[in-house]
Amino acid sequence: DSGVTQTPKHLITATGQRVTLRCSPRSGDLSVYWYQQSLDQGLQFLIQYYNGEERAKGNILERFSAQQFPDLHSELNLSSLELGDSALYFCASSATSGIYNEQFFGPGTRLTVL
Amino acid sequence: AQTVTQSQPEMSVQEAETVTLSCTYDTSESDYYLFWYKQPPSRQMILVIRQEAYKQQNATENRFSVNFQKAAKSFSLKISDSQLGDAAMYFCAYRSAYSNYQLIWGAGTKLIIKP
Questions:
Q1: Which of A85, B79, B91, B94 has an alpha carbon 20 to 30 Å from A41's alpha carbon atom?
Q2: Do B91 and A43 touch (CB under 8 A)?
Q3: DSSP per residue over B71-105, as a string?
Q4: Cα-Cα end-to-end distance for chain B
Q5: Which residue of B lies nearest to A109 if distances are taken between CA atoms?
Q6: Is A51 on the interface with B (CB under 8 A)?
Q7: What is the pLDDT of residues A63-101, one digit of tens each?
């Protein structure tokens, strides 16, 4: 158990809908990262937050947004969902946004768009 | 931009034997970190081993070791005494030491352990 929690574990929805994925980092970790893993592929970085502020952005679609709250949990919002958004979404956390701290991954949320 | 390449989509090894998974990367940076993650069927991402670019000594963690060749931009993972529990997808990942601390991932290698 990495200490990072993600809810829900599974999500099935229809095209055009909006969903929210939730992540709670390890106790004390200030940095949260979101990654997308499409079927049998590597992970793609979406976005990073550090202590409530956006720190880095990857290939995140405009239909997607995220935020990190004062209690450090983070939410990833996906809207106008398309079939191609079906994927495993991982959240990871690290102690700081610096270079010496490894990222610990949550169990992921599997999103299926029908 | 940095890229990570894993050229072996699938590898198989007999239980108790040794297997090496390949990873190459491309970067113009001199300082960075490299990682191997394991993703079993449960889909959890588990850190196996990491290497800091400025350290010449290859990292080892029990049965797992790396062969880090900085000039060749190669970072292979050796698994000794393979066990059935080692069966998983293995991903190589890169992280800059300068900015944008997100991980950049290879496509993964599926490791099959034959009993």
A1: B79
A2: yes
A3: TTTEEEEEE-S--GGG-EEEEEEEEESSS----EE
A4: 41
A5: B43
A6: no
A7: 999 999 999 999 999 999 999 999 999 999 988 655 556
